Amino acid sequence: MMTCTTCGAAAVVQWRRRLPGKPGADGNTEPVGACASHSLNPAAASLVHAATCTGTNKGGACDCTPEPAPGDSFPGPAEPERRLPPGW
């Protein structure tokens, strides 16, 4: 069970924080748990935050500028080309 990194209570939300010294590199994040008192709002929790972000400001905001959300740069798997046999 994940716990709040601020107070140790049961976590109700998880967000990601960039590891120190690893800016922008894929996979260089750590999970951060937060209880109801220290949680971020869902929109903020969906972003990767700075290594120094505590995420504990009231109102569901945080004390950093999170990385921008990824756009539609990954559209998903390409559809295979489908061809019907002659005569169809």
Structure overview:
By secondary structure, this protein is mainly beta. It has one helix and three strands; from the N terminus they run ββαβ. The protein has one helix spanning 42-45, and strands at residues 13-18, 29-34, 48-49. The chain has a three-stranded mixed β-sheet with strand order 2-1-3. The longest helix is centred in the middle third of the chain and has 4 residues, at 42-45. The chain starts with 12 loop residues before the first strand and ends in a 39-residue tail after the last strand.
Q: State the separation between the terminal residues, measured CA to CA.
A: 56 Å
The assembly state of the depicted protein chains is single chain
Roughly what fraction of the amino acids lie in strands?
A: 15-25%
Structural class: mainly beta
Give the % helix.
under 10%
Overall mean confidence score, pLDDT: 78
Total number of strands: 3
Q: Indicate the radius of gyration in whole angstroms.
A: 19 Å
Low-confidence stretches: none
Enumerate how many helices there are, as a single number. 1
List the secondary-structure elements in sequence, H or E. EEHE
What overall geometry do the principal axes of the alpha carbons give?
elongated
Largest sheet: 3 strands, mixed
Main-sheet strand order equals 2-1-3
